[in-house]
Amino acid sequence: MSAHADLVTSVGDARRVKGHAAGLHRRWASARRFLRSAIAARTSAAVADTLLPIDAAEAHTPPLPERPLPDTFAALAITYPTLLAVDQRKQRGAWFTPLELAEPTVARTLAPLLRNGDPSRLRICDPAVGGGTFLLGALRTLTTTGLRARDAVTCLHGVDLDSTAAALAALALFEACGDDAPDPIDLATHIRAGDGLIDLEPASFDAVLTNPPWETMQSGEDAAARVARLRPHFLHQGRGKLFTYRLFVERAHQLLRPGGRFGLIVPASLWFDREAEPLRRLLLEQCEWEWLFGFENRKRIFAIDNRYRFAAIVGTKGGTTACVATAFGRFDVADWAAEAPAHTRYGRAELQALSPHSGAFVEVDDRRDLEVLRRMHADSRPLLGRDGAFVWRQGDFNMTSDREHFVARSGAEAQGYRRCGDGVWRRPGHDDLLPLYQGAMVYDLHPNTGAHVRGTGHGTAWETPAAIDDLRPAWLVAAGPWRSRALQRARARIVLRALSNATNERTAVACLLPDVPCGNSLGVFEPRLHLHAPLRAIAAGAALLSSLAFDWAVRLRLGGTNLNGFVLADCVLPRLDAATESELAAIALRLCAVLPWHGPLWQQASDEGWIAASEPAVEPQQRRELATRIDLLTGRAFGLTADDVAWIVRGCGLPSPAARRSAPAGHGKGFWRVERELPREQRRPCRWLAAASQA
Known about the structure:
single chain, 695 residues, alpha+beta, Rossmann fold, nine-stranded mixed sheet, four-stranded antiparallel sheet
């Protein structure tokens, strides 16, 4: 493309961006006109014009379609976000917090302050006030102590970057005061437009209550300047992008006096994300962190994806944390509103023992989870790290940045390349090509479960191979450069699917492969040390990683969808005696080395002296029996009892999806999805329990 064409394109893009921004501003201006008329109808034109000064853009915007006026200012505040475009809602963090979620958070936050002091002297702040839900909850809580509404509302302070939201919050509080309300214009002097990350005075509040925006800082020159201005003032944000919720968590700590209380709604990444680790340390080491009560959005508490997860956190600035009351995966706000919510006491010592590198919370559902995990960790070795069993990397090739090294298999075959009996694509007179393995191509200890049909990226389609040796990768790579570095790698590797989820059928999907190139959708493990029998260690490791015991522990750790080194750093493997290692290795080899070109793996095993002849396991019943043997041996090596196994596989015998949905917390991450096509007693979790009970 010519420089002139580049310039035309960039100018066109800039105009489109500018036009889009102008359209969003017009949408906001139209909403503001509608709201001003609603405020004037319920108060006066003077109040409406003072709280929502006329914006210059309003003169050029059409009015919104006629609609009934909400009955209350609180309802008007709820309506406001729905008047905005989705992009504006994200930019402004305009998502209404239900009072049913805010009120129990407010009550637990303020309770100690109300027990120990004069409520009229409290200063309570919401630095991202939105529609004022948290301050409305605080007003109701304060008036239950006998404080007059007029006096209680003077304790409340709030700011929001969105001046419209701030005005609606002030009016909702004015309305909630009833006949005892102050002048709404006076009230709006401390419930106002402002930047909660900058404008408020540090160490000046007794309580901070908020549901801050959950977005990343937006791109563009203005955002870059804002990031540069903010970052020096926030010391617990990690090294990556700035996330608004993390800034507000730290800001809450800054705004509180010693002994002040915080009650916040935050996304799930607070308790597991790598870059949130400094914030977790702040809350654990410089606060008494009391509650971490986690929800799944299954009942649409917020008008966002029903898979989204978030939590209410409550605590006190100052001191240190000995124990946090935790709950995960709840979906009913009534659970949090209960007088004594069901929870698990998660000790600081347990957090350090189970997550020494990440400081991430393991999503336990019961005290028993912690006890079983502690037993698994007691005499185990780290999976990764200086003392770990393996080194790990996320693939050999990045599927985006290394794309120039890839050749589409379909294109290569159209030019005359054919797969040979050793799994290499060849064309006379041309360089050899090797298959590039991706996560979709492998499953639980099987090296060929996905054959490429068409497409790339999110549009990729895969199907079950027509035969066990029907290897059809999407991409091939040049064999020469790969072979030239063979001495730097082990002759075999464990691969683990990088993209996963704690509620999938399986979370840890592992397989033993020969030395083949892998994309970054597969994590690659090789032994840390030079061993006299490296394949035995690798194959046994593959068996351990494929076990239900290891999978269960990983499921409790995986809060996101990327099974990366940060998550794996705190995982452990049991220490194996020689006989158990050899048996596990032999089973893994039988399950994984099933393709015609896997002969070198069998030869290496024979050379190392732990297997005599090749016996690939391809018949389904035989493979199921071997998988159960892996689970039994791994569970035994971890020190698990039959009762522990029963706990881990609980819920797998529930007869129907409806029964599982009504089951207690913990079943969502269970193994009831495994081998659902089989009768219950023949499914892998039930087979493991039966074997453990008979051992």
